[in-house]
Write a structure and sequence with these properties.
Layout lengths: L3 H8 L3 E6 L11 E8 L4 E8 L4 E3 L14 H16 L2 H5 L4 H8 L2 E3 L4 H12 L7 H8 L6 H21 L1 H8 L4
Antiparallel strand pairs: 1-2, 2-3, 4-5
Helix pairs in contact: 1-5, 2-4, 5-7, 7-8
Amino acid sequence: MKNELEQFANDNNLTLTATLGGNNPNMDKAMFHWQCILSNGKTSFAFPFSCGGAHVQVKAKPNFVYMTGRPTTKDLDRLGSVCYNFEQKGYRKMHGMTTVWEAELLATGYEPKPPTIDDVLGSLASDARVMDYRNFSEWADDCGYDTDSLKARKIYDACIEVALQLKALLGSDQLEKLQNIEY
């Protein structure tokens, strides 16, 4: 049985294309960044979507070697070869990764798991709730942000942009319906 978000996507002819790579200026760099396109066949909406390191799937049997304390020369050689292989495979260029743990994940058989349409719709609907507030100050107070924070203002502005794009894609009635789905 499909969940409500998947059913909503089907009812609205929504499709999701997610390509690993690029960056998301609104998120931490130590994440998997996806460039996504949500489309209804007539209109589309392009946006970055980011997931943390737990959003991976096993592609091959991993062979982790855990380090405790100060790394030995052998540990450093192993990490050096992981990072070298990481560079040779083009992962850094393709995925925009910069951390050793991401290199470890990819080099030991894990790959980033693409976001599902329900992951994306739930996140976008949550961001679009910004329209429920009269202004930045009300939103910041309710969400626990400092009203003097430039970072909070940047997040607010990004959420406003998401809400406007999603409204253009779905229309007001369908956006409201999406926001009322429990997920």
